[in-house]
């Protein structure tokens, strides 16, 4: 009797999990309520769309905290000296930055604008590392005044900062970004440590670079940096590149007597956007990276350096969604197009990298999927297709779609193309929600524009 019951239970369970949406398994902040609506952090997204309009970015603060803690724990349980420098470019909304600051996160910044934002939220300068290629003199000055670590992208950049430091008589902590010449498996635009890449200095000029920095009275050499790319799902290239970075740290000690305070292995760990995409636990990356570092510390008898990590997408990526309303449905001899009120101005990743974002019919999540459609953006560009050949339930005009995993590189890459104002953004935290960015108005589109007198 007991066995029969067990078998029956197993059948029910398997039927249930077949019908269950794959993303609910790991994106535990998403759910479905009794109205068959998508929820985020327990909040009904249909209500949010009604209250704030669409397109609308929604981000779950608790999920950000959870992911931050998980990432940190994976590394600091293996290595005692870890600091996370959250990559601001992934999502620079002030409320998100405040949440991460409160958790103790530092910042990886790449522009004067990101430095300004970091200072605005009151982040301590010593927690900030300024990377970025082609920094202007103005940005270097600003960074020097602020007191952040300056991570050089080239020897030329270092020479420019030398002049500024001498002029200001100010000491600064510096490091170099190294191009370790590794090729992770990712979209070609997202690999940044290839031999032919524009970033960093190549291994063969590292000694020369550090030697020159060492001889300059206003520099305090602090570390070495790499960032090999983004949306990487395999820890192998990290092992390879970390090993090269540590060999360079060994060389710096042996040849120049320079001992580094930190090793920065960058960001880039990927997330699962798609059902058939593998998801690699962060602890696998941590194990491989830390193991490599420990071995090399021994080999070169180094002082244990701080380990800096610069995750962006892994922390905020799946915390955010983009809600968009269906405005038109059009059947052509080629496809059925579901026309929505968002476009690549709000989510550029599908167009720029052929990226996949899961699309969910947010007001009828668990309805049976029936037809394969294209989701078309509202911009006047034929490339403005946000999702191709997706199996969705029968979508109707006025339905609400949610693009998942839009917490990273969505709003931070948005534009006002076709004179479409920036969407609003809502934060969900502890079961409550807060407007954190007002929707731009048409008037905002004209802000800062001037018409010369003779044209008026
Ligand atoms: N550190 C540096 C120096 C970086 O340039 C980046 C990202 C990161 C850290 C963080 O990488 P993450 O952990 O977020 O992968 N727009 C692209 C991603 C470009 C990433 C650029 N650099 C996308 O939407 O996939």
- Which ions, cofactors or small ligands are bound in this entry? ligand LLP
For the secondary structure, the number of strands is 21
**Shape, per Cα inertia axes:** globular
What Rg do the Cα atoms give? Answer: 24 Å
Low-confidence stretches: 13-18
Main structural class: alpha/beta
The fraction of residues assigned to DSSP E strands is: 15-25%
Which whole number gives the mean pLDDT? 94
Notes on the structure:
Helix 7 (137-146) packs across helix 8. The chain is α/β, with parallel strands linked by helices and 456 residues long. It is globular, with a radius of gyration of 24 Å. The chain is built from 14 helices and 21 strands. The termini are far apart. The longest helix is centred in the middle third of the chain and has 21 residues, at 236-256. Strand 17 and strand 18 form a beta hairpin. Strands 4, 14, 15, 16, 17, 18, 19, 20 and 21 form a nine-stranded mixed beta sheet that branches. Strands 5-6-7-8-9-11-12-13 form an eight-stranded parallel barrel, surrounded by six helices. A three-stranded antiparallel beta sheet has the order 1-2-3.
């Amino acid at each position: 009797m007991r066995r029969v019951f067990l078998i029956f239970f197993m059948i029910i369970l398997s039927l249930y999990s077949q019908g269950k949406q794959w993303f609910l398994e790991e994106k535990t902040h998403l759910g479905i309520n009794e109205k068959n609506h998508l929820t985020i952090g327990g909040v009904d997204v249909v209500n949010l769309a009604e209250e704030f309009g669409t397109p609308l970015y929604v981000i779950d603060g608790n999920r950000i905290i959870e992911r931050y803690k998980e990432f940190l724990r994976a590394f600091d349980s293996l290595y005692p000296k870890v600091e996370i420098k959250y990559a601001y470019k992934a999502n620079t909304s002030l409320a998100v930055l405040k949440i991460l600051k409160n958790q103790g996160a530092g910042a990886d910044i790449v522009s004067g604008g990101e430095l300004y934002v970091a200072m605005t939220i009151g982040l301590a300068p010593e927690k900030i590392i300024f990377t970025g290629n082609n920094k202007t003199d103005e940005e270097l000055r600003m960074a020097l005044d602020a007191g952040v670590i300056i991570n050089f992208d080239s020897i030329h950049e270092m020479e420019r900062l030398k002049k500024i430091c001498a002029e200001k008589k100010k000491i600064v902590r510096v490091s170099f970004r190294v191009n370790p010449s590794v090729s992770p498996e990712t979209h070609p635009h997202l690999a940044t440590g290839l031999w032919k890449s524009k970033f960093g200095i190549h291994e063969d000029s590292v000694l020369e670079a550090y030697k020159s920095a060492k001889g300059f009275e206003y520099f305090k050499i602090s570390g070495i940096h790499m960032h090999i790319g983004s949306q990487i799902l395999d820890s192998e290239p990290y092992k390879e590149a970390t090993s090269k970075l540590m060999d360079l740290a060994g060389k710096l000690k042996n040849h120049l007597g320079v001992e580094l305070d930190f090793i920065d292995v960058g960001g880039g760990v990927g997330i699962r956007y798609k059902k058939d995409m593998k998801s690699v636990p962060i602890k696998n990356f941590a194990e491989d990276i830390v193991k490599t570092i420990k071995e090399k510390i021994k080999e070169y008898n180094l002082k244990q350096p701080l380990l800096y990590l610069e995750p962006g997408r892994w922390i905020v990526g799946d915390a955010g969604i983009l809600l968009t309303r269906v405005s038109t449905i059009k059947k052509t001899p080629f496809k059925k197009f579901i026309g929505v009120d968002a476009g690549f101005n709000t989510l550029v990743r599908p167009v720029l990298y052929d990226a996949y974002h899961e699309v969910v019919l947010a007001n009828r999540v668990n309805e049976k999927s029936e037809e394969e459609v294209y989701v078309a953006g509202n911009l006047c560009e034929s490339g403005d297709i946000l999702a191709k050949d997706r199996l969705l339930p029968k979508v109707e005009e006025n339905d609400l779609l949610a693009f998942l995993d839009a917490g990273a590189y969505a709003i931070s890459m948005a534009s006002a193309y076709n004179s479409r104002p920036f969407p609003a953004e809502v934060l969900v935290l502890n079961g409550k929600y807060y407007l954190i960015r007002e929707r731009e108005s048409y008037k905002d589109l004209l802000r800062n524009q001037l018409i010369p007198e003779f044209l008026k």
